[in-house]
């Protein structure tokens, strides 16, 4: 992705998926998470949530999904991945990390 070997990279590019971290802020419609929660995110941060694939929980086949990095958010900004300081993600794609599980051990998990 950094070298655009697949021809799909969008620059500036900050790679990183299968991310763990801590919620620092939530939007007004977020219901499942609060600031301070320990969370993880796979490789998708958003999708249309209305196509047949999304309804069947197969968002990775959604023609409008947004990747964790090198994707375009609904507001037109480029998504930056796990090596960035902060990121924005639809709560549907966020996992809660239990306190007993060290964050460094949880990064590659997916719902
Ligand atoms: Zn969809």
From TrEMBL:
<dbReference type="InterPro" id="IPR011032">
    <property type="entry name" value="GroES-like_sf"/>
</dbReference>
<dbReference type="GO" id="GO:0008270">
    <property type="term" value="F:zinc ion binding"/>
</dbReference>
<dbReference type="InterPro" id="IPR013154">
    <property type="entry name" value="ADH-like_N"/>
</dbReference>
<dbReference type="Pfam" id="PF08240">
    <property type="entry name" value="ADH_N"/>
</dbReference>
<dbReference type="GO" id="GO:0016616">
    <property type="term" value="F:oxidoreductase activity, acting on the CH-OH group of donors, NAD or NADP as acceptor"/>
</dbReference>
<dbReference type="InterPro" id="IPR002328">
    <property type="entry name" value="ADH_Zn_CS"/>
</dbReference>
<dbReference type="GO" id="GO:0009809">
    <property type="term" value="P:lignin biosynthetic process"/>
</dbReference>
<keyword id="KW-0479">Metal-binding</keyword>
<protein>
    <recommendedName>
        <fullName>Alcohol dehydrogenase-like N-terminal domain-containing protein</fullName>
    </recommendedName>
</protein>
<keyword id="KW-0862">Zinc</keyword>
<comment type="similarity">
    <text>Belongs to the zinc-containing alcohol dehydrogenase family.</text>
</comment>
<dbReference type="InterPro" id="IPR047109">
    <property type="entry name" value="CAD-like"/>
</dbReference>
<feature type="domain" description="Alcohol dehydrogenase-like N-terminal">
    <location>
        <begin position="3"/>
        <end position="99"/>
    </location>
</feature>
<keyword id="KW-0560">Oxidoreductase</keyword>
């Amino acid at each position: 992705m950094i070298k655009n070997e697949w021809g799909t990279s969008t620059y500036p590019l900050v790679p990183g998926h299968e991310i763990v971290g801590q919620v620092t802020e939530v939007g007004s419609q977020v219901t499942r998470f609060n600031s301070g929660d320990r969370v993880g995110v796979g490789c998708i941060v958003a999708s249309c949530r209305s196509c047949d694939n999304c309804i069947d929980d197969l968002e990775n086949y959604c023609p409008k999904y947004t990747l964790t990095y090198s994707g375009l958010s609904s507001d037109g900004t480029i998504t930056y991945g796990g090596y960035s300081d902060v990121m924005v993600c639809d709560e549907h794609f966020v996992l809660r990390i239990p306190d007993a599980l060290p964050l460094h051990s949880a990064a590659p998990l997916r719902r």
